Each structure stands twice: as structure tokens, then as C-alpha cells.
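Re-run requested by the PI after the first attempt was lost when the workstation crashed. Everything re-entered from the original request form. Ligand of interest: pyridoxal-5'-phosphate.
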Amino acid sequence: MKDLFDKLRDNRGPIGMHAKESHGYFTFPKLEGEISSRMVFRGKERLVWSLNNYLGLANHPEVRKADTEAAEKFGFAAPMGARMMSGNSNYHEQLEAGLSELVKKEDTILCNFGYQATVSAIDCLVDRHDVIVYDAESHACILDGVRLHMGKRFVYPHNDMASLEKQLERATKMVNETGGAILVITEGVFGMSGNQGKLKEVVELKKKFTFRLFVDDAHGCGTMGPTGGGTGEEQGCQDGIDIYFGTFAKSFALIGGFISSTENIVEYLRYNMRSQIFAKSLPLPLVVGAIKRLELIRAHPEFRENLWKITKALQNGLKNNGFDIGTTSSPVTPVYLSGSIPEATNLILDLRENYDLFCSMVVYPVIPKGQIILRLIPTAIHTIEDVNYTIDCFSKIKDKLMTGKYMSEKIAAF
Ligand SMILES: Cc1ncc(COP(=O)(O)O)c(C=O)c1O
């Protein structure tokens, strides 16, 4: 018999197996200084394209002031206890009302973390008689929610509507036997490819099938739609989303999340969602800070306009310079390249050390062997000069990659 710790010492997991050579540089890098498009990495200022600070709110003076004043006034302990028992406040309810207006739903429940909100809401909404049908490229929090589900689940290939329809036929047959119901889960914006979920087409399927639709709009909330109401607003089908999830971790530049739906469903979640009933409520400085961010998002459409100006300049510039950015239709900008893992690490090292440009890299085992994705996140506080500089750097590193300059048996040392 094996000792658990011995087993874990030998099996570090697909990313953890590279911890020794990557920790502190490729993984767990430390970006220091005020959050902006320029931050300090290993003692030197770099142009940063890896933060989901889409609207540039993280360091907005009004946000910083509101955060500081709220921390001073309330401290981080308040309120104590779970919302249901002793942790409720007028501020929590005010924020919920404001978020409901933003995403055009009747009511909203705040949650301490986005990830936990999705896992727990899925767990709470379905029982063993119900069937979940979900997109294959769903975020880990959706997959974990689905893992908790005691009934059947059917997956369809990413955004494949014909397959979704087939799975809905199967699911319908099944729930007719079990007496259960169907929940379809997808995302507004898929965080790796930048693709939008085909929400309008999914909603259209409601004419043919009976199901409810849960949308994780972590990347779409605040960035998509004429008022920042999200990807459903962008596609003109917000009403067809039955359960809307948003996070504060991206456009809001904070922490926490929320679920919006009908009054009836939100009340059900308030009284049944285990992660909220059995956990301490969101601290007041975070709630008051979120109220300030929401106010700014609503009052300043120019933040979103600037985000899109930078996004379009970056994406068009990359395409015009021969880069493959896939099928993104959101600010998320993946750049697809081919090469080995040592080539990818040498390339990132070159970008960071010689061009002072910091972006994220994705390689095997997250994506197939031989592929490299450089993932750029434009924000409202980047400039057109940043975009032009980046495209120039990318053209140079692509030439080096294609002429074999990054080839090396050994992973780059740093
Ligand atoms: C699509 C998606 N859903 C959910 C989450 C989890 O949200 P949070 O960071 O607020 O826990 C993330 C990542 O932040 C995400 O990208």
C-alpha cells in the first residue's frame, strides 16, 4: 500500500511536474507596482498584456479612494457571519439591485468568489432527475459544478449547435422518464479562444425544447453589449438567459461574483446555495468598492469604448501582419504559433527580457503538443503606441521562431 504523500511526491500533475524549472518566471511570476499597463517584473518595468483589468478600473483614483475609505470605515471583518444568519447589510442589497439593473435581470445574489458561485449554483439548481447539457470548452468552475451533479450530463463540442440539438433530444427523452428538467450551460465569452458562445442560437432552441439556460459571462460582463450588460446584451438575447453569472475578478477589478435571475430563482438560491449559507458574507469594503466600480461602469461608457478601440487596433494589426488570432470576437486575443515547449519558453524569455513585454503563454498539456498560444488581454488603459510596439515585437519574435532561433534542447534558464 502506498502512503498518500509518497504518491503525491511522485505524481506532481501536468503543470506541477514543471514547477522546479518554471516557478517564479513562467508560473507564479510576480508583477509589482501599481496595476496598470506597465508594471515591474524582476526589477524592470514591462509592458503588461496579461491582466483582466479590461476597463482599467483597478487603479482608477475614485476606485482607490472608495476602497481606502471603506476599509477605514468598516474594516475587513464586517459583517460577521453568513448573510442568512448575521452577515447581511444594506450595502449588499444595494449592490445586488445595481447589478440586476446592469444585466437586466429581476434579482441578484452576491457570492464570495466567482468560481465558487458557479460550482455551487449548478449544484443547487439541479437534482439527480435533471440532465445538464454543456459546452465542451467550459471553464473549470462549470466542469466542477457538473462533477457535483448526481444525474446525467451530456457534453457537446464547443459551439456546435447541431450537436447541442442532438444532446437536447437525448436529454428530453431522459427527463421524460425521470420526471426531471434540463439545464444548458455555456459561456458568454470563452476565456482562452475569445469566442462568444452562440447564445442567440441556443436561445432559439427553446422554441423546440424545454430547458433553462445558465451563462457564465465572466469575461463578457462590463465588456460586451452597448451598456456593458454582457454577451446576451451584445447578441440581443439577454432575456433568453435564465441564470446569468458574472465575476468581479475581471472588468470590476475586485474579487467576488454574482448570479442574476428571476426573483423567484434568486430567492431559491439565497435559501439553498450551500456555499453562501455555510460561509461568511463578502466583506463590506469589497461590497462598497464594487458599488463604486458599478457606478463608474455605468457612468463612463468611454472606458468600454476605449477597450474596444485598443482591441480592434491590436487584433487588426496582428491579422494584417500575418498572425493567426483564431476566431475571437471579444477583447481576449490569442496568438496561435507552432513550436516545441523549449521554443515557447525561449520565446517568452526573449519577449520579457529583451523587449520588456509581458504576456501569458499556453502550451501542452493545456493545448495539443506543438502549439503555442500567446494570450493578450487589451484594456482601456493601453495606448495605440503600446499596440504598435507590441505588433512590431511580435513580428520580430515570429521571424526568430520560424527561422529556428529559439530551438534548444534545454528549457531556457532565467
Ligand atoms: C469563464 C470564467 N468563469 C469563472 C471564473 C472564476 O471567477 P473568479 O475568479 O471570480 O473566481 C473565471 C476566472 O476568473 C472565468 O474565466
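Saved to the shared folder this time. The longest strand covers residues 182-187.
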